[in-house]
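Page 37, top half.
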Amino acid sequence: MKIIKVINNNTVCVLDEKGKEQIMSGKGIGFGKKYGDEVDSKHIEKIYMVTDSTLRKKLIECLSEIPYEYIKLTDDLVRYISSQIQGSLNNSLIVTLSDHIAFAIERKKQGMEFSNPLMDSIHDCFPDELALGKYCLNEIKEKLGIELHADEAGFIAMHIINARMGTTMGQVPDITKMINGCAEIADRFYSGKIDKTKVAYDRFLVHLKFLAKRLFSSQELPNVLSKDEEILSLIKLKFKKHYKCAKCIQDYILKNYAKTICEDEMLTLAIHLKKISE
């Protein structure tokens, strides 16, 4: 494989045997190298296959500016995160997370640490992602000897949420607040009698997460249930109380986020609400 660009001593861009561009990193992989040189395979530690040109540009920028040990640790963290969750992660996580970790460490050295106002909401709505954020903090402390503020676990969790849901970081706070707000409405509607230890409640939160994702990415459930008048009438009759709670959630989302829930979403939400209220 021929080097087409040396980014720094630890990172190079190459063309593989098929003529495709790859980014490779490894301690000293680019040291003393120039355009056209062969890559020394014993120095290769990580190969990044990035087809999206915008993401590839951001990755190269990230690899050129952030200390190699931060990049290597972040890569290990992303691999661990991927092994602990269901589904896929957006390829951008290696970029956003390494950038965040480097910035957080720099702030720590300058005596600037931020609290995360969304910690309680993240704890309630995204406990798995928060647990992974805490794992990352422990690894940073153990591998780099730097102890970051505990709230950084919440910020890291937000990056993981974004990578899982395919949203933007700017949308994550609103999504988190919306999920928490919907859960609070249900809790008040049923007079605080919901058993939050049940599997049904976990499924309810998962449903809210995907509802939020659909709303913020302008997607909707296909109109299947609501097309069947018999099913529509049956659910509205037998789930009357729970449909009313769904209506409260619908009003809350419209008022606070200017987004509407379609009828199929309402019916599905009513079914989940019935299960968590039993």
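Page 37, bottom half:
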Amino acid sequence: MASDNKNTKKKISQLEDLGNGIYKEIERGQNPYLIVPTRGLANVKYSKEKGILTLGESTSKRYFLNVGHVRKFVQTVAVASLSKNLIQSDKHTSLRDVFYQMRRTIPGTKIDVVDDQTETDKAVEDLELITDLTREQLHITANKNGAVAGDVVIEDREDTIDWAKMGSGGWAIPSTTEDIEFKRVNAKFVLYMEKAAIWDRLNEDRAWKKLNCVIIASQGQATRGIRRLLQRLYNEQNLPVYILTDFDPWGFYIYSAIKFGSIALAHASEKLALPQARFMGLLADDIERYDLKRHLIKFKDVDMVRLKQIQKYEWFKDNKPWTEEFGKMEKLGAKVELNAFTAKGLSFMTEKYLPEKIKEKKFLD
């Protein structure tokens, strides 16, 4: 509890320092400004030492007395004020609610602080960059989009929750997973999958119990709450994390974003990326081994373009197993979905595919 109070005071202090800095500039008769790290691709670097994407040192100044800057300046300061109040009252609000709370007319004018949610979303992202606090630490949340099951007991805001007793839907993973406390963890590894339908299939089979693991899913790209949860399960509970996706460029990208981070969230890689994650999804050799050729889905142009992009990623270029995998996919000119396994039996993944992958350690790093 003392640690929580200390963290709260630190966050409030950071936001107050931001406001005080602006106030002092005004008192001195100066044009107040914000220093905002540049989010462009040119300022995103891959750190081989850390194994993650990081944001470079390039910054820009956003001035209050500048017609081109003033709107974003005011929006960012307004979000900072809102966040400070949220932290002080120990309450959270959604990105959508931030928009409605900020949508007001500036006194004496006919100008609204914000016109649509894209403006408040960008202001929140800018505040993350300025303060080095994540959106979740600023008490601003996004929609829930994920589920988890396993022999794990947690405490979340004084509620004790058993992931093994959450029924067919599992426990809905919130946007903020930073303050969850692990009370009991009985698992050997974590299995994350990109599709909710695959998670439903494995949960109905109680695969998490048979394989002694935790199963987690989103619908497509992993949310920030899920990424942070995966990172915490690895760092704090020493659970290896395996990524289960389709054999397609989009599935490979999902793995890449979890492991190395993403360009859009390069500033938060330290808190979200997991360089130790390994790929347990469908590979080219699995198509032959499990007789999945009749389930090949021919590439569209957009699929090949995506594959070419991923092949050029710095973290893949010198990785021989991955370059070979990309080459095989390019030669096939097709993809295969995990759902294809249901043609061999609804429980095929639980009873055969996953146990064999684990036993033979058929992972890509």
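Margin note: The mean pLDDT is 93.
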